[in-house]
Amino acid sequence: MSITSKQRRDARKRREQRARNQAAAGLDAASPIEPHAELRDDDKQLLAGIVRRDGQWVLGMDGRIAGESDSAAHVLALILRAAELHDRAGTNVRLVYSDDLKHAAHAEAAGQGLSFDQFRQQLVAGLQGEPETH
Question: 78-96 pLDDT, tens per residue?
């Protein structure tokens, strides 16, 4: 028996055991996580990000999940707001986001009869406790 065939067999056994363990724990199919946005400072440190997992948009900040939503417009508006706040505080940041996130957010806002900028303004006003305007 060659060394490589033994290594392949052992690797296969480990994969099969891992699959059995995940199935027993109720983790049959690990849900894929799709990255869609990154907010980074000048040192390229990740400040915030958005991923899509199990049909939910997930916003993470400071290494923790800040929230989940069905609303692409909501999470995109929040990360844009975070970028603005960092800029105002004197931290140069760079925000990069996917076309999928952008299109979903704009389509969602349009479905409410708003432009995405109007949606953002309403969200920020709500966060600041101001009355909403239409």
Answer: 999 999 999 999 999 999 9
* CB neighbourhood size of 78 (10 A): 23
SS in 3 state form for the chain? CCHHHHHHHHHHHHHHHHHHHHHHCCCCCCCCEEEEEEEEECCCCEEEEEEEECCEEEEEECCEEEEEECCHHHHHHHHHHHHHHHHHCCCCEEEEECHHHHHHHHHHHHHCCCCHHHHHHHHHHHHCCCCCCC
Single-letter amino acid, residue 125: A
What pLDDT does residue 88 have? 94
For residues 118 and 120, give the distance between their C-alpha atoms in angstroms, rounded to a whole number: 5
Q: Which of 38, 40, 39, 71 is nearest to 57 (CA)?
A: 71
